[in-house]
C-alpha cells in the first residue's frame, strides 16, 4: 500500500471554503487541489456535521473562523493606530520642551 498523505488543518479549511464559497463541485475542487474526491467529501461531511450547533449559544466552526479572521484584522488596525499615536505623542512631547523648537 502507498503512504497515506497528511494534510494541514489550514489546507483542509481552505479546501472546504473553495467548495462552499465558490460553489464548486467536489470533483472539480479535488482536481484543482490534487486530492482524492473522497477525502474532500469526508472533510465536507465533517464541517457540515460540526456546523450544527449542539447547544444553545454554541457556534459552528465556520462562524468561529469568520469571527477569528475579523478579530485579527481589527487587532492589526488597532495596533497600527496605537503606533501612530505613540509617534505623535513623542513628536509633540519633543516640541513642547524649551529650546527644541526649530
TrEMBL record:
Q: Which SUPFAM superfamilies match?
A: Homeodomain-like (SSF46689)
Q: Could you give a single Gene Ontology term from the biological process aspect?
A: DNA transposition
Q: Which domain of life is it from?
A: Bacteria
Q: Which GO terms describe its molecular function?
A: DNA binding; transposase activity
Query: Which UniProt key words apply to this protein?
Result: Plasmid
Q: Coiled-coil annotation: which residues?
A: none
- Note the InterPro entries from the entry: Homeodomain-like_sf, RD_transcriptional_regulator, Transposase_8
Q: Which protein is depicted?
A: Transposase IS3/IS911 family protein
- Which source organism does the UniProt entry give? Trichlorobacter lovleyi (strain ATCC BAA-1151 / DSM 17278 / SZ) (Geobacter lovleyi)
Amino acid at each position: 500500500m502507498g503512504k497515506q498523505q497528511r494534510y494541514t488543518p489550514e489546507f483542509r479549511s481552505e479546501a472546504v471554503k473553495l467548495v462552499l464559497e465558490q460553489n464548486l463541485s467536489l470533483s472539480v475542487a479535488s482536481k484543482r487541489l490534487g486530492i482524492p474526491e473522497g477525502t474532500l467529501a469526508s472533510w465536507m461531511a465533517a464541517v457540515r456535521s460540526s456546523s450544527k450547533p449542539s447547544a444553545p449559544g454554541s457556534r459552528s466552526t465556520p462562524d468561529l473562523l469568520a469571527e477569528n479572521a475579523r478579530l485579527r484584522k481589527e487587532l492589526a488596525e488597532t495596533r497600527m493606530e496605537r503606533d501612530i499615536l505613540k509617534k505623535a505623542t513623542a513628536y509633540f512631547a519633543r516640541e513642547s520642551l524649551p529650546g527644541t523648537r526649530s
